[in-house]
Amino acid sequence: MADMLIKLYDLDDDRRFIAQQKERGISVRKPIGPEKHMIIDWVSKQFSPGWAAETDVATANTPRSCFVAVKATRFIGFACYDATALGYFGPIGVEKSERGKGTGQALLMACLLDMQLKGYGYAIVGDVKNPAYYQKIVGAIEIPDSSPGIYKNRVKNADPAV
Ligand SMILES: CC(C)(COP(=O)(O)OP(=O)(O)OC[C@H]1O[C@@H](n2cnc3c(N)ncnc32)[C@H](O)[C@@H]1OP(=O)(O)O)[C@@H](O)C(=O)NCCC(=O)NCCS
């Protein structure tokens, strides 16, 4: 699947999505240090070890390049950037039972506005599985000839050869 490009310089600095999620009892914010291992573990169980590794990278960055959505005292979503590679957005995920209520969009926008503030002009979404989502929310466009892109030489199995 191809990569997509998002124009950060065209995004309005409108953070109402934070208050909208708060009205639903959901806090969209950066994780703090003592939550690091818990968010990585949650992403691994809910999604994949690969996405958990990227969350590990994002939560180790200074400042952190990761947002979580917390309902009561449990995680229901996460999103990262500068995790796969610098300038890349993702991964992002919302718990199945909590989808379709704007939480994914809030996590995406929180990351993109954070990137904009840091001085990035564009964000890249790598290996997009649902292009319609990014096209709809932020007008992302497909990058020609971008598959398999940065993942071309990715090691998928670190077991020694037999
Ligand atoms: C993608 C994902 C994070 C979206 O989270 P969500 O909380 O359900 O998204 P939202 O409720 O904020 O949706 C915002 C809008 O995008 C639309 N949308 C959601 N998923 C979509 C999809 N796969 N394709 C197109 N549009 C989509 C919604 O209908 C909504 O539109 P509306 O405002 O007109 O109703 C969630 O579906 C998910 O975790 N998927 C599995 C992991 C995944 O695929 N991650 C992305 C890998 S590239």
Structure overview:
The chain is of the alpha+beta class and 162 residues long. It has one domain: Gcn5-related N-acetyltransferase (GNAT) (Aminopeptidase), CATH 3.40.630. It is 34% helix and 22% strand. Strands 2-3-4-5-6-1-7 form a seven-stranded mixed β-sheet, sandwiched between helices. A hairpin with a 2-residue loop joins strand 3 and strand 4. The model has no long low-confidence stretch (mean pLDDT 96). Coenzyme A binds next to strand 5, helix 4 and helix 5.
Topology:
Elements: E1 4-7, H1 16-23, E2 26-29, H2 36-46, H3 49-60, E3 66-71, E4 74-81, E5 88-94, H4 103-118, E6 122-125, H5 131-138, E7 141-142
Parallel strand pairs: 5-6
Antiparallel strand pairs: 1-6, 1-7, 2-3, 3-4, 4-5
This protein binds coenzyme A.
Structure in a nutshell:
By secondary structure, the chain is α+β, with helices and mostly antiparallel strands. It has helices at residues 16-23, 36-46, 49-60, 103-118, 131-138; strands at 4-7, 26-29, 66-71, 74-81, 88-94, 122-125, 141-142.
Provide key terms for this protein.
162 residues; alpha+beta; Aminopeptidase; 7-stranded mixed β-sheet; globular; binds coenzyme A
